[in-house]
Amino acid sequence: MRSLLSDGQFFEIHVDCPPEICEERDKKGVYAKAKVGLIKEFTGISAPYEPPENPDLIIPSYELDAREAAERVVDLIKQRGILDSSHLEKMLTANVSARTY
């Protein structure tokens, strides 16, 4: 995908979480079904999983809450010069205002 876009237009973000934690969080029971063979070719269980070789950012979702993860993504965007702090502040303010009734 990266090769299809110009430099700076694509960020590969790896959301990392061990399978056992994914299974604990699984409310629909798909991991249990995959383990007993009801779901074939389930990534990380019956099919291989290959993490990205050189992601721009790794989010350890087993250590961070959603807000902390989002802050890391925003920091990456700032570091790469896509948006500066004033643009981000305007977006966040607009988003909060749009949700306020």
Describe the structure.
The chain is mainly alpha-helical and 101 residues long. It has two domains: 1-60, no CATH class; 64-101, no CATH class. It has four helices and two strands, in the order βααβαα. It has a two-stranded parallel sheet. The radius of gyration is 18 Å and the shape is elongated. The relative contact order is 0.14.
Summarize the model shown.
42% of the residues lie in helices and 8% in strands. It is mainly α.
Strand order of the largest sheet: 1-2
How many DSSP helices?
4
Helix content: 40-55%
Q: What is the domain total for the residues?
A: 2
**Total E-strand runs:** 2
The helix/strand series, from N terminus to C terminus, equals: EHHEHH
Using the CA coordinates, give the radius of gyration: 18 Å
Topology, pairings included?
Blueprint: E1 13-16, H1 19-25, H2 30-35, E2 57-60, H3 66-79, H4 85-99
Parallel strand pairs: 1-2
List keywords for this structure.
mainly alpha; 2 domains; two-stranded parallel ribbon
